[in-house]
Q: What sequence folds into this?
């Protein structure tokens, strides 16, 4: 492989790993949003007027508690990213990496505060000076609000320091500070210096982010379509989280004054408005990038595609694939997890996936044009009820079922026509028998794993031994991790990975990232599958 190709492969793998780390704070954000949404909506005048029973002190206290708990994820979002990135990317001593992430983020802000104080900018209560330098209270420290980008930078620096120094050996007199203990120490020094540079560089980054936001917003109603289509097109490569984070958490997603506080990012604006008692109507400029845009495809389109694929399956095979489609629809409509359905046609009909991406983007544009204002992150039925129905007709939630029904018909017609016209081998249309080539036997471990491939299924409901065998055995796996729906692995020898065997054991798809990294699409039970594999690997160690 050429040096240039190796560099591209390494960069691709790096961004995939980075995007994966976003899932830990984003999962908490989803939960926090639901807590905040239920608490704020059930205590609103609209709901208490409709249901007077809820207008009692005890319920008010419960709903206020829910709102307070839900606000945590948004109040401390940057520091969560600073911790999650080194935690997710570190290969060893993950706890140390996470601890160093918190240390680094805090010290960087202390150093920024020192610089601003030394320059005479702080202390001050002048709102003009504070706004001009974007100074806010961060973890009790007056500092420049670098938002998610600052936190990501801290996380990456800490990750690099951790990988470089977590095994360092110091002279005997300083040996106590060596190894993993040295990571937070070197982090404190390096991020302390970085904090002195931040006030000099941040204005340029802020200008670039604002320019990106102006570009997206300047596209008008095509802005949401570009975002929605781009997010779907990046999903097969695991890179969609980068785009999503930029829109949700930075000025590219807009900036707005909410309850006397300037906030940036589409999701942050929405959640700030949700928590602000003075706001009675959500901002269309923010929600157009959020849940509402996904709902036409998630609640209508993909179920329509699933019905088309089911009806196009051979009659004798329909009973075999019915459960696959039903579970995929439930995951999509209730959980907002689309990959179990998308990966049923992504690999056999990439053009259909491109059409799906365009229709998803079009759904974002249509919701924005109709003035729907439903926020949060998942685009599922829960978001529709909590952030739409419970907040009254001002959200125009009643338009969602109408548009979703139209998308259902469009997807159904397109998928049924394409499958039948071009004989696309969606589930249930394959040949009656599936031949699975045996994995080569490079090592004793791989051979032993092959012999246990007929073992009973694990707690995940999947045959972990068979999946491990199809991956070339425990000896072939160098790293094993997972995101929401996929196993993410590095293997020693990619030729030992048997794609057909993986699919025969219920994998929805296999993505070969490069010569050593791959992703196996499992679905919503991926965490349990990973746990089963780790247990099998530890037993064979």
A:
């Amino acid at each position: 492989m050429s040096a240039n190709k190796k560099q591209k492969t390494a960069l691709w793998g790096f961004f995939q790993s980075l995007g994966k780390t976003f899932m830990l704070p984003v999962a908490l954000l989803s939960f926090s949003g639901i807590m905040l949404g239920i608490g704020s909506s059930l205590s609103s005048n609209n709901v208490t007027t409709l249901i007077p029973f809820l207008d009692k002190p005890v319920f008010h206290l419960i709903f206020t508690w829910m709102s307070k708990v839900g606000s945590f994820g948004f109040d401390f979002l940057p520091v969560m990213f600073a911790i999650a990135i080194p935690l997710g990317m570190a290969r060893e001593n993950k706890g140390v990496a996470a601890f160093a992430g918190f240390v680094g983020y805090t010290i960087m802000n202390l150093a920024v505060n020192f610089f601003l104080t030394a320059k005479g900018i702080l202390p001050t209560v002048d709102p003009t000076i504070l706004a001009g330098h974007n100074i806010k209270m961060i973890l009790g420290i007056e500092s420049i609000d670098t938002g998610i980008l600052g936190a990501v930078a801290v996380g990456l620096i800490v990750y690099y320091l951790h990988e470089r120094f977590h095994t360092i050996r110091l002279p005997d007199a300083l040996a106590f500070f060596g190894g993993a203990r040295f990571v937070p120490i070197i982090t404190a020094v390096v991020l302390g210096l970085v904090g002195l540079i931040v006030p000099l560089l941040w204005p340029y980054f802020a200008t670039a982010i604002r320019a990106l936001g102006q570009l997206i917003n300047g596209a008008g109603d095509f802005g949401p379509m570009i975002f929605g289509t781009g997010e779907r097109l990046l999903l097969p490569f695991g890179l969609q989280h980068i785009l999503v984070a930029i829109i949700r958490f930075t000025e590219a997603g807009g900036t707005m004054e909410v309850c006397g506080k300037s906030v940036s990012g589409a999701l942050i604006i929405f959640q700030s408005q949700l928590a602000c008692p003075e706001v009675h109507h959500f901002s269309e400029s923010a929600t157009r990038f959020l849940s509402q845009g996904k709902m036409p495809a998630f609640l209508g389109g993909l179920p329509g595609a699933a019905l088309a694929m089911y009806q196009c399956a051979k009659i004798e095979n329909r009973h075999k694939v019915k459960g696959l489609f039903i579970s995929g629809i439930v995951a999509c409509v209730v959980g907002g997890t689309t990959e179990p359905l998308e990966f049923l046609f992504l690999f056999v009909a990439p053009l259909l996936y491109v059409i799906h991406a365009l229709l998803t983007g079009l759904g974002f544009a249509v919701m924005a044009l109709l003035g729907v204002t439903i926020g949060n992150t998942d685009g599922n039925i829960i978001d529709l009820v909590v952030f739409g129905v419970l907040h009254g007709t001002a959200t125009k939630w009643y338009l969602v079922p109408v548009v979703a029904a139209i998308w259902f018909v469009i997807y159904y017609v397109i998928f049924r026509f394409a499958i039948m016209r071009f004989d696309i081998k969606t589930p249930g249309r394959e040949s009656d028998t599936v031949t699975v080539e045996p994995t080569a036997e490079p090592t004793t471990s791989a051979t032993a794993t092959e012999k246990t491939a007929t073992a009973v299924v694990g707690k995940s409901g999947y045959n972990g031994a068979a999946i491990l065998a199809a991956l070339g055995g425990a000896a072939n796996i160098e790293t094993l991790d997972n995101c929401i729906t996929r196993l993410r692995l590095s293997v020693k020898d990619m030729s030992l990975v048997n794609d057909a065997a993986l699919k025969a054991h219920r994998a929805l798809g296999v993505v070969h990232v490069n010569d050593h990294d791959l992703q196996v699409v499992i679905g919503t039970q991926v965490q349990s599958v990973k746990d089963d594999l780790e247990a099998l690997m530890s037993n064979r160690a």
Observations:
- Strands lie at 135-138, 141-144, 255-258, 261-264, 477-482, 486-491, 509-512, 517-521.
- Confidence is low (pLDDT under 50) at residues 432-455.
- Residues 166 and 180 are 4 Å apart (CA to CA).
- The longest strand covers residues 477-482.
